[in-house]
RNA sequence: GUGGACGUAGUUCAGUUGGUAGAGCCCUGGAUUGUGGAUCCAGCUGUCGCGGGUUCAAUUCCCGUCGUCCACCCCA
């Protein structure tokens, strides 16, 4: 083969694709249940949208964006995240004029040029939700609860939630100055990476795993929140407590995107290896303003689809079985024509019908039907054509029956999902 | 971007102390001519990731490159 898929991308097919679809359906139901509605924004946007909002100094912007020029020289970027695009769409479509609060969800591919690793891809998929237009911490709690519900749906009831408040532009700005001063003070004790971080984004020093001793001596954001921010944070904690949501306060939690204000949180799965964040989110009250709109409060989260898939068993338990599915076995061209006519009628009645056109011997066809786990096999041979009836076989029980061509559809409708026993 | 392990049939892997390769599964056909996941028999498939070097000879050694996985980093 001459071509391979680009590094860090995946082909989704077979059982994995089935599972993927099923997960998407489950998750969609939960999001809808909370009153969130789907939004689809373009896969690429003007580069400035991300540079401006995610942050010029952020890793995403400095080294991870897939940016290109189109034929008119416009600078475009494959979306590395979807919060900024959703906010852009919100403002561009004038939704703030509708007043109240807008709740969106999305699912789709994101692109980040990063070294592939377990649970990390260059094209990866996020499920996310954004609640725009409300500053009340109750909506922060709703977002956190909603994201947790996604995992609960699949049986994960006690995942670790790390919570923090990173303050607003005002109090974080003041804190940053203080932090910067402290970092200069401890300069000699910092690792090379942190010396850089101290210059570019002092907040990131908290992420360092080697400078543990210095971190202990550094001031903590939550001690320096302004009145509004600390009140917001306390209320949020109280609401979460009241809702029986378990969380861990992590004053060192910092998100990698610059637009976050106040609430920041993430959901961790301890057994996932280095890439253990299932979901991350928070409040981004400054984002709309950054895009040139009015100041609009908002919260959201995004969850990694691949990581959710990773923690789920290969076989998701099947929900209620719908109509039985059928596998047609035919022996020659005349039979196959008749089979396709009947298959069409069944499909119109919403049955899944597979017509085996291989003309292989009956054993092979039957085996194939078994492997594919069809409920029924329908034989059409010369005998059936002459009598204008099919031989029907239940693959689970092995029992057979004869049903005339005209009555095939109604046969199943009348017998319900079980058919012959 | 840094470090480590690995890269052989569709797939999982074995192998050659350097002489161009093999096993299970899968697939195809058959074992009384129209009835299945078992058994048995037969068969198919590979530029041994790609490029270069050393050598009479490389899939086996060396270098580079691409890719996969793991960690750093970052994050979903």
Comma- or semicolon-separated keywords:
21% strand; 8-stranded mixed β-sheet; 421 residues; 5-stranded mixed β-sheet; alpha+beta; 38% helix; RNA-binding
Describe the fold and architecture:
By secondary structure, the chain is an alpha+beta fold. 38% of the residues lie in helices and 21% in strands. It has 15 helices and 16 strands. It has helices at 14-33, 47-54, 59-64, 83-92, 137-153, 169-185, 192-200, 212-217, 227-242, 287-290, 305-311, 333-348, 362-371, 382-387, 408-415; strands at residues 37-38, 44-46, 66-69, 75-78, 102-111, 123-132, 160-165, 248-249, 261-268, 277-283, 298-304, 326-330, 353-356, 376-380, 389-394, 400-404. An eight-stranded mixed sheet has the order 1-5-6-11-10-9-7-8, sandwiched between helices. A five-stranded mixed sheet has the order 13-12-14-15-16, with helices on both faces. Strands 2-4-3 form a three-stranded antiparallel sheet. Strand 9 (261-268) and strand 10 form a beta hairpin. The radius of gyration is 28 Å and the shape is elongated. The chain starts with 13 loop residues before the first helix and ends in a 6-residue tail after the last helix. The mean pLDDT is 89. It binds one RNA strand of 76 nucleotides through helix 3, strand 6, strand 10, strand 11 and helix 11.
